[in-house]
Each structure stands twice: as structure tokens, then as C-alpha cells.
Amino acid sequence: MPEPEIPDEYLGDYAHILEEVAETGRRLTRDELDARRALGRQAAEAGFQLRALVGLHLAATRTAWPRATAAHSASTDCVLAAVEQAIDAIAEGFERAQRLTVRREEAARREFIDDLLYGRSDLGRLAERATRFGLRLSRAHAVAVATGPAAYTETDAVPRMVEAALLARFDGRKILLTTKDGRLVCIAPSAQPDVLRYFAKQAHAATEGGTVAVGRPHRGPGGVVQSYDEALDALDLADRMDLEDPVLYAADLLVYPVLTRDRQAMADLVRSELGPLQEARGGAEPLLKTLAAYFDAGCVAAETARRLALSVRALTYRLERIHQLTGSDPSDPMHRYTLQTAVIGARLLDWPAKEL
Known about the structure:
Layout: H1 14-24, H2 30-45, H3 50-71, H4 76-118, H5 123-132, E1 140-147, H6 157-170, E2 176-180, E3 183-189, H7 193-206, E4 211-214, E5 218-219, H8 221-241, E6 247-249, H9 255-259, H10 263-274, H11 285-296, H12 301-308, H13 312-326, H14 333-349
Parallel strand pairs: 4-6
Antiparallel strand pairs: 1-3, 1-4, 1-5, 2-3
């Protein structure tokens, strides 16, 4: 589609200025330069291209030049200097207007993202604004959040690297990539799970081994913030539970919120089952870590000993000590479930570092 032709009104009194320069050899005045800047700004705001604006002035220069040089004896250098001044001024005004527009767009985008992820603003109005940024909130969306060793902003190299990879692979898809509170955030329709999987892969690599969490899909403007909160909860859970998976899915971690839904009951279980471990030499922490490693290894003694850098004999001694203190045998299937649930609860409640 051809670009719209820029009207001659964006020349102002350019031809008259050239005639005076050709006659006197003077340079452009401050007022004339300000007028050029204003015309450049107006052209940018009207949606014209800088190339078209420069072309209009060069065409006017070719038209006015023969008349001016035929009637006057000013040097060619003076006219060329005036043309250079005029073009530089209109370009400056044009670029200022563009930078202002970009800043306004960035501010509007940031405000929209904050409203979307905090669940603020009228939901109907939020859905209308979302279309401007490529989202249709009437559909179900899921949110992935990536965290790394540093806090990121949208202008940092890591987010730009991930965005470039996503756009190269999924150009035209309705995806929103941003940052929030130092983390990378990707919002994509639930019908396109490959987008978030690819985001997770790229973000994990770009953050040099960071963790990515993916919330469950939810419909509507409120669904985005719900999925975002689930992803944040998954990251927090990974930190407290020492989960080593690089990519976590909230749908796979639903058992943990269930376990802590009755916090008081879980605290009672931890105190009654694991409280006696505090009587051990060195406190409860070493034996609690032994139990956690034992359960994580599928209750296989040799694998547990390897993970803890212990001999099997030393591990067996620790398990026997746990049995003596708690009255529950980790190797007994009847006791194992209660002990394992208590260990999970201790991780979730940050016991014994925090009093219950």
C-alpha cells in the first residue's frame, strides 16, 4: 500500500527562506529553525514518514534553486548550508515527537500490565484495552513467570533475547511478553501451550538456569491474574520445598495447597511427629534433611546415602535414631505416609527455623 502524499503545507515558508538566503547569504534564524521543528513534530503526529517530509523539502529545494541562483549571486555553499539547517531542524522536531509517542505508549502499556496482573481496573474496560496489546481476554489464557539471578526490566538483554526468540518462532501469535517485579512474564492463549513451553525453555537458558513456573489456564480478565498468582505461588513453593525442576506447572503442585489449607492441623502434625527430633544432638535439621532425602529417593537407602554423601551404615544409624525419637519407623509403610506428610508440612511451614 503506497504511503499517503504529504501536503505542501508542511513546507511553510521554506521557498521564501531559500530566496532570502540566496540573496543575502545569511543562516536560518532561531525562529525559522523553531518553525521547522514544529512542522516536523506536526508531521510525525499526523502519521507521515520522516522520509516523505525530507523528500518534500528536497523537491522544493530543486524547484526554488534555479530561480534563486539566477537572480542572486550568493554562493552555493550558503544555500546548501541553509538546506542542511532546515532538514536537521525538521528531523529533530520529528524525532522528538516520536520519542514522546513511544514514552506515552510505554507508559500506557506498563499501566495496562500492572492493572492486568494486579486485577485492578474495571474488567470490561480492561478487556477493551487488552485488544490494543494483542490479547483477547474473553478467551482462556495461561501465564508463565521466570526468575533468574538478577532482577530484569523490559530493556535488559535477557528479556529482549527471549522476546526475539519467541517472535522468530511464533510471529503473529497473540502473545504478551513483559517483566514484573524483576521477573519475566509471558501471557499466551491456553489453546497454544507450545508458546509457554518454548518461553520456559528460552527463559531457563537466557537466565542461566533460572526457574520457570506456569499457572493453569483461566478465562476472562480475572483469569490472567489468577494464573499469574498460581505461577508466583509455584515459584515460592519451589524455593521452600527445594524443588529442582527447571519448569514447574501449578497443575502438578495442587497437593501442596491442599496440605496447607488447614494450617493449624498441619502445624499440629509437624509438632507431634517431628518435634521430638529437636532432642537430637545438633537439633532437628540434620535428621529432617535425612528424612526429606530418603523420601525423595523413593526410600532407597543406597540412593539416599549417595545424595547425602554418607555411608549406608551412617544412614541406617540416622533412620534408627529417627525411629527412637519419634516412635515412627521411616521404613515401615504404615508409618511412612504420616512421616512424609509431616516432612512436607515442615518444609511448607519453614520448620524448625520458625516456631509453630
